[in-house]
Design brief:
Blueprint: H1 3-10, H2 18-31, H3 37-44, E1 49-54, H4 60-75, E2 79-84, H5 89-99, E3 105-109, H6 115-122, E4 127-130, E5 139-144, H7 146-159, E6 165-169, H8 177-190, E7 196-199, H9 204-215, E8 223-226, H10 229-242, E9 251-256, H11 259-262, E10 269-272, H12 275-292, E11 299-302, E12 305-307
Parallel strand pairs: 1-2, 1-3, 3-4, 4-5, 5-11, 6-7, 6-8, 8-9, 9-10
Antiparallel strand pairs: 10-12
Length: 325
């Protein structure tokens, strides 16, 4: 049989007779043969692969987005290739590795690279950025409305009677951190409360360290709004070690609604980002630009929601608040 005919068999072409298909597959099984996808790409100079840059392997937030990406990619019959890169040079190297495989497009999950550097590296290749809003033309954006999410958090805590609401934020350049500060401060001022921001990073370790700082304050907050669930889990651990009870002494609210927040012994009140939907929309947006030859950039801003669990409660009765100072 010709190479072309064998190729048609492995591409499930309806042009091949059933008897011929069966003979080719049987021969392949005897030989242990697998189609060489790289050779196919080189021969055709095309690919059915989408490259995905994953910045943080330790944050379950990204795992949920990747789950959505893979679901949509499977539905659209494209493959996903994931490359991991931390900040700076590692991200550049990870993106370059993806580009060398000639993908049809890229999905970058909360990249920390400067937008001009990203634009120069990817060139005209269709690229979707998830979780970070940039102004550079050429990129499509899928983000959560972080300002609205932070406002939801503050208004809920305020409704419970809390006025001393502290925000533990992410670090400079961490996706969504600046927008969550903006939403927090805007909501606090609108409600007549004084904003208080404690800088940290998007990690459990930073949350644990923040708990010690909070415990040493002259006037402790009655509620803490953490910029993500990792910080909140670190705070929960730190408060427990310091003998500060959640939510009896201080209410705690996170952001993302990751699998950590849903764990029974944590049971964290948090703001939900529709992470899987964001991943699916990233693939759909990428393919829509590619196959419809859309030139204009788009931004999809997803709506967050509040998920109430056991780490928040109404402010204690009069007099109890004094004991938390």
């Amino acid at each position: 049989m010709s190479r072309a005919l064998v190729s048609l068999v492995f591409r499930n072409s309806p042009k091949v007779a059933d008897d011929t298909r069966s003979r080719v597959i049987a021969a392949a099984e005897r030989l242990g043969y697998r189609p060489n996808a790289n050779a196919r790409r080189l021969a055709s100079r095309t690919t059915d692969t989408v490259g995905v840059l994953l910045r943080d392997l330790h944050n379950p937030f990204f795992a949920d987005i990747v789950d959505g990406i893979e679901t949509a990619a499977d539905r659209k019959n494209v493959q996903v290739l994931i490359s991991h890169g931390r900040r700076g040079a590692d991200e550049v190297s990870a993106v370059e590795s993806l580009l060398e495989l000639r993908p049809i497009g890229l999905v970058l999950l909360s990249p920390s690279l400067p937008t001009r550097a990203m634009a120069a590296q990817v060139g005209t290749l269709p690229t979707v950025i998830v979780g970070r809003e940039v102004r550079q033309r050429g990129f499509d954006i899928v983000v959560d409305d972080d300002v609205r999410g932070a406002e939801l958090a503050v208004r809920y805590l305020h409704k419970l009677g809390h006025r001393r609401i502290l925000h533990v934020t992410g670090g400079p350049g961490e996706a969504g951190a600046a927008q969550r500060i903006r939403g927090y401060e805007r909501a606090m001022r609108a409600l007549g409360a004084t904003p208080r921001v404690l800088p940290a990073r998007f990690s459990e370790e930073a949350g644990f360290a923040a708990a010690e700082v909070i415990a040493g304050m002259d006037e402790m907050p009655t509620a803490v709004f953490a910029a993500n669930d990792l910080i909140a889990v670190g705070l929960l651990s730190g408060f427990d070690q310091l003998g500060i009870r959640v939510p009896d002494d201080v209410s705690l609210l996170g952001y993302d609604n990751t699998s950590l927040a849903r764990t029974r012994h944590i049971d964290l009140t948090t703001i939900d980002q529709p992470r899987r939907a964001m991943g699916e929309l990233a693939i759909e947006t990428l393919l829509e630009r590619l196959y419809r030859d859309r030139q204009r950039s788009t931004i999809h801003r997803m709506m967050p929601t509040l998920v109430i669990r056991s780490t928040t409660r109404p402010i204690p009765a009069a007099g109890a608040e004094e004991r938390t100072r």
